[in-house]
Amino acid sequence: MAGPFSTLVGRGIRRGLVGGHRGWQVVLAVGLVGRLFRALGGRRPTAHRTRLEVGEGLEVRHLDERGEDG
User: Fold this and answer.
1) Would you call 63 helix, strand, or coil by DSSP?
2) How far apart are the C-alpha atoms of 15 and 34, rounded to whole Å?
3) Helix 22-40 vs helix 4-11: angle between axes, to the nearest 10 degrees?
4) What is the mean pLDDT of residues 31-49?
5) Residue 69, SS3?
6) H helices within 1-70, ranges in order?
7) Average pLDDT, the chain
8) How far apart are the C-alpha atoms of 6 and 24, rounded to whole Å?
9) Cα 63–68–70 angle (5° rounding)?
10) Cα–Cα distances in Å, from 41 out to 45, 50, 60, 70?
């Protein structure tokens, strides 16, 4: 299922570029600029959730900017 952001960009393409509706062209432009800023903004933190059974352990590692163990 697509999120609301993807839905708006898709509608902007269909109704704005294909249909020629000026308002949807603006929605498309704003959506694409938003995606560009999000892509240029760098990595977002990652969260993982795992259920551990009794007796299991957990090791937490951190990678530096180059992807090497730190």
Assistant:
1) strand
2) 19
3) 130
4) 80
5) strand
6) 4-11, 22-40
7) 82
8) 13
9) 60
10) 12, 28, 25, 23
The pair of structure tokens assigned to 42 is: 């760098």
| Residue 17 · residue 28 · CB < 8 Å | yes
Nearest alpha-carbon partner for 62 in 50, 45, 49 = 45
Nearest alpha carbon to residue 32 among 10, 1, 4: 10
CA atoms within 13 A on the CB side of 46: 7
Cα–Cα dist 30/33, whole Å? 5
For residue 8, report the phi and psi dihedrals to the nearest 5 degrees.
Answer: -65, -40
pTM of the predicted model as reported, rounded to 2 decimal places: 0.52
Nearest residue to 33 via CA among 5, 56, 2, 69:
5
